[in-house]
């Protein structure tokens, strides 16, 4: 149940990001659901090895380089899902930051309000 709610909240966060950040487009909620699954798969298959490879650079930049890596991963996921578009680096950069913040806030609010902890 927790995984399902988390997935739905992630899709909602992606739809909100698309409404706020120019350059990010999500056709409908169904595409957002598919895109969130693809984002998770991209982060799992490409993200963690890329984070590991860029660890020295991230240490030097105090972790700020990982924001660029996350923007790249969001852009990569958008290339794999029809109906989900991220145009340009700035949109991907701002979108990845806002997506992370929105998902955290929404999850925290929902699970706290529901009396569930994660």
Outline the secondary-structure elements.
Layout (H helix, E strand, L loop, with lengths): L1 H19 L3 E3 L2 H25 L1 H6 L4 H16 L3 E3 L2 H25 L5
Antiparallel strand pairs: 1-2
Helix pairs in contact: 1-2, 1-5, 2-4, 4-5
Please characterize this protein's 3D structure:
With 118 residues, the chain is mainly alpha-helical. It has one domain (2-113). 77% of the residues lie in helices and 5% in strands. The chain has five helices and two strands. The chain has a two-stranded antiparallel sheet with strand order 1-2. Helix 1 (2-20) crosses helix 2 (29-53). The termini are close together. The model has no long low-confidence stretch (mean pLDDT 91).
SSE string, helix = H, strand = E? HEHHHEH
**Spatial strand arrangement across the major sheet:** 1-2
Rg computed from alpha carbons, rounded to a whole number of angstroms: 14 Å
Which residue ranges are poorly predicted, with pLDDT under 50 across at least 5 consecutive positions?
none
The number of E-state strands comes to 2
């Amino acid at each position: 149940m927790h995984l399902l709610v988390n997935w739905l909240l992630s899709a909602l966060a992606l739809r909100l990001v698309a409404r706020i950040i120019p350059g990010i487009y999500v056709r409908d909620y169904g595409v957002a659901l598919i895109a969130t699954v693809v984002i998770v798969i991209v982060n799992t298959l490409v993200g963690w090895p890329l984070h590991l490879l860029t660890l020295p650079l991230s240490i030097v930049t105090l972790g700020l380089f990982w924001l660029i890596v996350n923007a790249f991963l969001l852009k990569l996921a958008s290339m794999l899902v029809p109906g989900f578009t991220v145009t340009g680096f700035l949109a991907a950069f701002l979108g990845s930051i806002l997506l992370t913040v929105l998902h955290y806030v929404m999850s925290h609010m929902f699970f706290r309000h529901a009396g569930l902890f994660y």
